[in-house]
Amino acid sequence: MSSNAREDILEAAKKSAQAHGYGGLSMRDLAAEVGMKAASLYYHFPSKADLASAVAKRYWEDAAADLEKAWDEISDPAEMLRYFPVTFRRALENENRMCLCSFMGAEYDDLPEPVKKEVQTFADVNVAWLKKALVATGSVTPDASEAQAKAVFAAVAGAQLMARSRADIALYDTLIDSYRATGLLPA
Amino acid sequence: MSSNAREDILEAAKKSAQAHGYGGLSMRDLAAEVGMKAASLYYHFPSKADLASAVAKRYWEDAAADLEKAWDEISDPAEMLRYFPVTFRRALENENRMCLCSFMGAEYDDLPEPVKKEVQTFADVNVAWLKKALVATGSVTPDASEAQAKAVFAAVAGAQLMARSRADIALYDTLIDSYRATGLLPA
DNA sequence: ACCTGAACACCGTTCAAGT
DNA sequence: ACCTGAACACCGTTCAAGT
Questions:
Q1: How many C-beta atoms surround the C-beta of residue A178 within 10 A?
Q2: Domains defined for chain B, CATH in brackets
């Protein structure tokens, strides 16, 4: 419904990349989705690599904004750590999609350099937020918080991947619960 | 060097799928790799889906055999759980490759049904082994062992994915260490 | 039995051309 | 300013044909 073609392309490309990855993102299908011909996409983005880079950049920017909002609204650090897995759950709720950056992480070898960079920034943003939250709980020393933040990020991404591979969102919840039971995440 | 073309194809397809996934597995490139034309592949496998299915089947069979061997050779259950992450480390050691089934798990939407099935069996085999090992340690009740086995599998797969996305095998080791520090894996 | 060339409908991309 | 048709070199796949 947006009158802005560039916006429509970015949104449709994001949804497609979350389901099919960079390689599976088809310029022809994407064009059809937004009601134009494949050639027209190149008026808005010089290449598939540029489009994907813009999509990945916006993806981590949106994630960062969402996490910052949660940081401001939630005062209890333990509550923040309960919130984090919710952000990864949303992709699964959205027709069994997954984190664009996890998918593209798998596609590492075939990713244009600028896309790689944005994908890594997504992880950086999430890890930095988790680190802040972990330190705030007081349960981790600042020294150990970086490593544990990475561990939480990797484990949650892995849970999303496993749940997606069976299209089983209940499995995702079970995995997160187990992370809490074992102590990776605060109970 | 093998005189068996079918064998060469399976091996080359496995290595390619570990780096590029199902979608990124090119029949033309694969054929060149084993010294034949793309059309010739169809003499040995009726379709790309059949080839990928055979590759994934052998992949979990090899994994199962390796784990059973470890089970027989390692008597201490805690030692077995120390061994498990080693199996996922090997792919990263092998030119930053990743688990074929993790990659294909991401590609869930675009996977032919028979391939999906073999991919899921890989997870089943690993989870069943982990469950056995966890119960043997006596640290988990049999009731809780299934969930925790899945958690370990998902977390290790996530660690591999994150490490691959930065081509950083030291990060993998750090993540596994953090899993031990937090209690997801026995220290 | 095993492999190939040529063809099919696809793909990302370019570019001259349209409005 | 924004979009398109036609073309390019690719892809998985088929199939008749080669040895």
A1: 24
A2: 53-182 (1.10.357.10)
Asked whether the predicted pLDDT for residue A19 surpasses 80, the reply is yes
Close Cβ partners of A53 (under 8 Å, ≥ 6 residues apart):
A112, A114, A115, A117, A118
Alpha-carbon distance B104 to nearest alpha carbon in chain A (angstroms): 8
Q: What is the pTM of this model?
A: 0.97
Q: Distance between CA A146 and CA A138 in Å, rounded?
A: 14
Residues of B in contact with A84 (CB under 8 A): none
Residue labelled with tokens 């709980």? A137
Chain centroid to CA B127: how far? 12
| Chain B residues lying within 8 Å of A170, measured CB to CB | none
Cα B120 from Cα B122, distance rounded (Å): 5
Number of H helices, E strands in chain A: 9, 0
**Residue ranges of the alpha helices (H) in B74-112?**
77-93, 100-106
- Find tokens 């990020």 and name the residue: A153
Pick from A125, A131, A9, A8: nearest CA to A67: A125
Q: Are B104 and B21 in contact (CB under 8 A)?
A: yes
Number of Cβ within a 10 Å radius of residue B35? 9
CA of B28 to C1' of D9 (A): 14
SS3 category, B103 = helix
Which single residue is written with the structure tokens 């984190």?
Answer: A99
As given in the structure block, the two tokens for residue B117 are 């099935």
Cα torsion for A87, A91, A96, A102, to the nearest 10°?
-90
Residue B108: which of A110, A165, A183 has the nearest Cβ?
A: A165
pLDDT tens digits for B64-107?
999 999 999 999 999 999 999 999 999 999 999 999 999 999 99
Using the CB atoms, write b or e for B45-63: b if 16+ within 10 Å.
Answer: beebeebbbbbbbbbbeeb
Mind listing the pLDDT tens digit for each residue in B17-52?
A: 999 999 999 999 999 999 999 999 999 999 999 999
